[in-house]
Amino acid sequence: MRSPADPHAAAVDLLSDWIAPDPGQEVLRREFVDFLAGHADGVWRSCSPAHLTAGALIVDPERDRVLLLLHAKARLWLPAGGHCEPGDGSLAATALREAVEESGISDLVLHGDGTPLKLDRHPAPCRPGVADEHFDVQFLALAPPDAVPALSDESHDLAWFGYDELPTPTADDVHHLVAAARGRLAADGEPNGPGAAGRAGSPV
């Protein structure tokens, strides 16, 4: 595998090796890989008409709840996420950094050693008229029990929500993302406890 110091190369490696969970996700995986092959700057915000982003659904598995943020630009309840920055080195590092910054929870860990949970393509709110789409790589982040989030200037609000009590308005994909997170945790047989969160995750 190539050096993770190059986020573009690391993204290519990650998505080339990732085993998609269903045919729809496999179509997206190939689209993401093809996009990166044609755009050497595809992981950076400056890339037009699209670029990769990374995010993380923050889950408290002990209390069966997720942390969502009321995004200041999109005005939707969304998971944490954003653009790659110099020094991130990988999409997993971007996702974890954004999750920590936007949630105020410093000891989050990525589940599955930074394996993507889901891919999504959606309109890009960051540069209207310049960048049309985000190719978003979504991860699963585990919060420790009793984690207390803190609002950042990226959002108007943030709150915990039960798996079946998601707020409105939110993007349709959030429901699919929560379902994917629940499926992965259930498939891993992860008990609802702090020890499991610590063992299953990686600080990346």
TrEMBL record:
Pfam families to which the protein is assigned, alphabetical: NUDIX (PF00293)
Nudix hydrolase domain boundaries? 49-185
Q: Where is this region: Disordered?
A: 185-204
Q: Which InterPro entries match?
A: NUDIX_hydrolase-like_dom_sf (IPR015797), NUDIX_hydrolase_dom (IPR000086)
Lineage, top-rank taxon, reads Bacteria
> What family does the entry list?
Belongs to the Nudix hydrolase family.
According to UniProt, the name of this protein is 8-oxo-dGTP pyrophosphatase MutT (NUDIX family)
State the organism named in the record.
Answer: Haloactinopolyspora alba
